[in-house]
Amino acid sequence: MNASSKSDMTIGQLARRAGSDVETIRYYERRGLLPPPPRSGNGYRRYPPDAARRLRFIRRAKTLGFTLAEIGELLSLREAGNNRAAVKELARARLADLDARLADLQRMRDALADLDQRCTGHGTVSGCPIIEALDQETTA
Predict the structure, then answer these.
(1) How far is CA 112 from CA 5, 33, 106, 129, in A?
(2) Nearest-CA neighbor of 55 among 75, 39, 69, 41?
(3) Which of 8, 15, 20, 64 is most exposed by smallest CB count within 10 Å?
(4) pTM score, two decimals?
């Protein structure tokens, strides 16, 4: 039987405090992003107060586009506390990926805007530049 502190939380309390949901917490535990908490004498998970901080960290990292694997690395680096260069390297890699995705999205937008300009929006679908472009066979 594990002793628990009065400040420890149930999974529901943790979910509310961190702005998450119970299933997400369980998923992060399975992925190793959140250490499994000790259990009380009656078998309930009892999360320490810092678990909410860790969940908020994960959520903020996700909003910046970090993958769960990268978030795991960031958490490890945070805990080790001595490798700012590795943190910056992860951030730069994520930034480069986001830049590439933005460039792809801009190309898609430009192509679709061109097709939109060429389509009158009137008449039958036959001869519609949007349909024709989608129907073309390409060699890549």
Answers:
(1) 58, 40, 10, 10
(2) 75
(3) 64
(4) 0.77
